[in-house]
Design goal:
The complex is a heterodimer. By secondary structure, chain A is α+β, with helices and mostly antiparallel strands. Chain A has 3 helices and 5 strands. By secondary structure, chain B is of the alpha+beta class. Chain B has 5 helices and 16 strands. Chain B has helices at 32-41, 94-108, 139-144, 207-214, 225-241, and strands at 6-8, 11-20, 23-29, 53-57, 70-74, 77-81, 86-89, 114-124, 127-132, 151-153, 156-162, 165-169, 185-196, 201-205, 218-219, 244-249. In chain B, helix 4 crosses helix 5 (225-241). Mean pLDDT of chain B is 89; it is low at 1-9. The chains are: A alpha+beta, B alpha+beta. Chains A and B meet through strand 2 and strand 3 of A and helix 4 and helix 5 of B.
Chain lengths: 100, 261
């Protein structure tokens, strides 16, 4: 299922992560699982700040990598959904309610 | 090794001090059998140390008054540490003691820019060659094919950044080699990911690939986020600052010929 473009995302605050070369390595402390993001994933990861929506992230991706906006949005939503499945990112309710 | 110094309930309390990778410990216990076993196991690492981390072993009268900074259970034995003291309870043999000590050391090292790695380390020309991999990758084979007296450890290596340089230290945690590691250290020449093959060859690894090789082999038992962040930062530094290689090797000592000096 694809998330809505208007949904904002934040990094899972429990994770440890570090950039190395052009990749990002992420560790989930509770299960010691290691995740690795490629350069596009790392770009998105760096820009996920708890405020930007998928559409805004796609806009940054399109500008930086010079890809068509619709392609960037599709790619961004796919990456966010994959990260969400792995519990690397969590959506923020549009209402701005309490996240706890 | 210091002399017995006190009486504590059921037995005479004894203590001895040792250090692993410059991390100082003082074990305090009343169990004479465990004391003998521990004395033998850590004999090469004993000696007077300054400001040791005090570990009370099976001292049931010890009552916690401070919140635990780190706690871990291992096969019925448990470790608990607070800002003043560390205690190991339920320790029945030197195997359990050794396991808790590894766990404690892995945690303490994050405050000292170091980490424990499943790796054999061999010194050649004054430099430490670190060979990492899971069980069966060939760590003990590499150790057994290296000149006698040069093996720091065949199982668990301690890497620490000291004065801007990465040092490899021997540890008393042994594997199939069945010999205590050497209580010495040397600057790290490189880290080699072991792959068994039909020929001997070596290829460079970029930091990104090196950290991927390192992380699954790092010993770490704390599931707390901040400690994991510290660990990842340290291992990341190691991957960026230490030369990484993939070593494909046959089971003979000729692999040394393809390694960089």
């Amino acid at each position: 299922m694809t998330s809505k473009p208007s949904v904002s995302w934040q990094k899972n605050p429990a994770l440890a992560w570090r950039e190395i070369d052009d990749a990002t390595v992420i560790i989930s402390p509770t299960d010691s699982v290691m995740h690795e993001l490629n350069d596009t994933g790392s770009f998105l990861w760096k820009n996920i700040d708890g405020r930007r929506s998928a559409a805004e992230l796609a806009g940054l991706l399109a500008e930086t990598y010079e890809v068509a906006p619709d392609v960037a949005l599709t790619d961004t939503q796919a990456l966010l959904d994959e990260m969400s499945t792995r519990k690397l990112v969590v959506p923020i309710p549009a209402t701005g309610g309490d996240l706890r | 090794m210091s002399a017995p110094d006190a009486n504590s309930g059921g037995g005479r309390q004894q203590q001895f001090e040792f250090s692993i990778g410059c991390v100082p410990f003082q074990l305090q216990m009343s169990d004479a059998r465990l004391f003998r076993a521990a004395s033998l196991r850590y004999a090469a690492f004993t000696g007077a140390v300054a400001q040791p981390i005090e570990i009370a072993l099976n001292e049931s009268s010890f009552v916690e008054s401070l919140p635990a900074e780190f706690a871990y259970n291992f096969e019925g034995a448990c470790l608990r540490t607070d800002s003043r003291k560390t205690r190991f309870d339920g320790v029945r043999n030197d195997y359990a003691l050794d396991s808790l000590l590894r766990i404690l050391l892995s945690w303490k090292l994050t405050g000292r820019h170091g980490f424990l790695l499943h790796a054999a380390t061999v010194i050649r020309n004054g430099k430490a060659y670190v060979f990492t991999g899971k069980s069966g990758a060939g760590k003990s084979t590499v150790a057994s094919l290296s000149p006698k007296g040069c093996v720091l450890t065949d199982e668990i290596s301690l890497l620490r950044r000291e004065n801007g340089q990465w040092q490899a230290h021997g540890t008393p945690f042994w594997g199939e080699f069945r010999a205590a590691g050497s209580n010495t250290s040397a600057p790290v020449q490189g880290i080699y990911r072991l792959v068994q093959g039909a020929e001997n060859r070596v290829a460079s690894l970029r930091p990104r690939k090196l950290i991927r090789a390192l992380l699954p082999n790092v010993l770490f038992f704390c599931s707390e986020s901040e400690a994991t962040r510290r660990l990842l930062e340290i291992v990341g530094h190691a991957a960026e600052e230490i030369s990484g290689y993939e070593l494909t090797f046959r089971k003979d000592s000729a692999f040394w010929e393809v390694l960089p000096a």
